[in-house]
Design goal:
Low-confidence stretches: 101-115
Strand content: 35-45%
Shape: globular
Distance between the termini: 43 Å
Number of helices: 6
Number of domains: 1
């Protein structure tokens, strides 16, 4: 397992041309940029966790039937400091680096305690996101690194806190038809009490009086906020939902222990261990009006669960429908410690692994404290999801299980906030390491798969055909790697309707397993 996930990647700074077999659609023009951990040791020092590796950015450019590939390490401050020192000197979530004992450890620790939240790494290895016309490598901290999508050069660093009071922010924003970006973050240090913050970054890029472009984030607009249920234990969240009129925030019982975080150095633990799952707690669903920023008064909740990724959300007949990939507990994170990966196999079943489950929740927006008790208020006929008003007026929501064993979900994003039928993702049945990709039909509850022996595809990305009307009219893109030295890494292009292979582009370079990415259409 470590031969793929734990090995150091390498840069391909100049574009190389792939060997294409099959026929690429002539309309497929643009660049798929991918992000993920790619460097797991510096000098003689090594990271502990796969999610700690230094970011390696990949791009696959489709132009006139040709595919070119390049990759570069994100030149973050973290990367530059580590490389200069020839060892890891910046802490990551699974790897804590302790201060040099020859320096004043007490003053450093006191500084962390005074700030409550430490100044995190800027190793942005999770996703590529767009604000205005700017593209950023992002993770879930207050720093982002801007990249040039054509050359993959790191061109600057930005701090959310210079524009909005945030300590953490997701790497999974939403975009509307006008190009505006919506995101959520956590404000731990004011002004005001700790809250979850929803914000918008307008599509138009501001220009200074001297004619120079300003970062789009300088025009950020706070839409609304939600107070923590527990001041010292905010919910962890990786993504959120959006419909035409509402945001959906899942306040789950997978929580960040602020006191433990602030004292991590003292106690000799890493930041990742400051997350804990409370199986006896509940999961709250906050519904926030996109125009007013106010939460609806009805209290919707469900049993304890862990969620990282939302699929989609929409409104239908006064119901709010949203689909999540859920887990029974938080053990997934622990399975990616590199020491454990050394003894595991990509094809080995893990008995402690609870497969991800796609669940549909439905919230009747007409529910209120006087609604009748003990009956299901969901009247939609295409789901078994339930919502029942309790004696205290709150609404308990029971999900409809759509599919078991899929992660890293994606949709035709033009159907985001709309009723949809299909989603795509990495097939994970008996271990967290996907060796298939799948398309799921929500209506029939059937699915189709692509797989090849000794091949491990990345998160599938849907690209629609020009002028497409049907939801699945387009292609699926996925980069594929293999531990078999006889199988070169390749970009896989599938017909999204039937999952038949249209083409593959073999890459004459090292390609590393990644996490998330973004397709940028070519300028017309």
């Amino acid at each position: 397992m470590l031969s793929i996930l734990g090995k150091n990647g390498s840069e391909t700074p100049e574009p190389v041309v792939a060997e294409v077999k099959g026929s690429l659609p002539v309309w497929l023009q643009g660049t798929l940029i991918r992000n993920g951990p790619g460097l797991f040791s510096v000098g003689s020092s090594q990271y502990n966790h796969w999610f700690d590796g230094l970011s390696l950015i990949h791009s696959f450019t489709f132009c006139n039937g040709e595919v070119t590939y390049r990759s570069k390490f994100l030149k973050s401050d973290t990367y530059k400091r580590n490389i200069k020192a020839d060892r890891i000197i910046v802490s990551e979530f699974g790897t804590m680096i302790y201060p040099d004992p020859c320096k004043n450890i007490f003053s450093r620790t006191f500084t962390h305690l005074c700030n409550v939240v430490p100044d995190f790494t800027d190793n942005n290895l999770v996703n590529i996101i767009r604000y205005g016309r700017d593209y950023y490598a992002s993770s879930e901290v207050n720093y982002m690194n801007q990249i040039d999508p054509d050359t993959l050069e790191t061109v600057g660093r930005i701090n959310y806190r210079n524009h909005i009071a945030l300590n953490l922010a997701t790497a999974h924003p939403h975009y509307d038809d006008q190009g505006n970006t919506y995101n959520m973050g956590t404000s731990l240090m004011g002004p005001g009490p700790p809250r979850y913050i929803i914000f918008k970054v307008p599509a138009d890029a501001p220009v200074s009086e001297k004619g120079r472009g300003k970062p789009a984030l300088s025009r950020v607009q706070k839409i609304g906020s939600i107070p923590f249920r527990s001041t010292l234990s905010p919910s962890y969240f990786h993504s959120f939902g959006m419909t035409e009129n509402f945001f959906i925030f899942v306040e789950q019982p997978f929580k960040l222990d602020i006191v433990r975080l602030a004292t991590a150095y003292f106690r000799g633990v890493n930041w990742g261990s400051c997350l804990r799952f409370d199986k006896d707690d509940i999961t709250l669903f906050h519904v926030i009006n996109r125009k007013t920023g106010r939460a609806v008064k009805t209290r919707f909740y469900s049993a304890a669960l862990v969620v990282f990724h939302h699929l989609n959300a929409y409104e239908e007949d006064d119901h709010l429908v949203f689909d999540l990939i859920t887990y029974k507990d938080s053990s997934l994170y622990d399975m990616f410690y590199l020491q454990d990966l050394k003894t595991s196999s990509l094809s080995q079943s893990n008995e402690s692994f609870h497969p991800p489950t796609c669940q549909r929740f439905v919230l009747p927006l007409s529910a209120h404290k006087e609604s009748p008790r003990g009956i299901n208020l969901v009247t939609l006929t295409d789901t078994t999801a339930q919502a029942v008003v309790q004696e205290d007026g709150s609404v308990f929501c029971q999900p409809d299980t759509v599919f078991i064993g899929l992660e890293l979900p994606g949709i035709n994003y033009s159907f985001n906030t709309k009723k949809y039928r299909y989603f795509y993702g990495s097939r994970v049945e008996w271990s967290p390491h996907p060796n298939k990709i799948a398309k799921v039909d929500i209506v029939t509850r059937e699915h189709i798969e692509w797989t090849q022996d000794d091949c491990f595809p990345s998160e599938p990305v849907f690209v629609a055909s020009p002028g497409a009307v049907e939801e699945d009219d387009g292609v699926i893109l996925s980069s594929v790697i293999s531990p078999d030295p006889n199988i070169s890494p390749f970009m896989l292009i599938l017909n999204a309707k039937n999952f038949e292979e249209i083409a593959r582009a073999s890459i004459p370079a090292d390609v590393h397993m990644d996490l998330h990415g973004l397709f940028i259409p070519a300028a017309v």
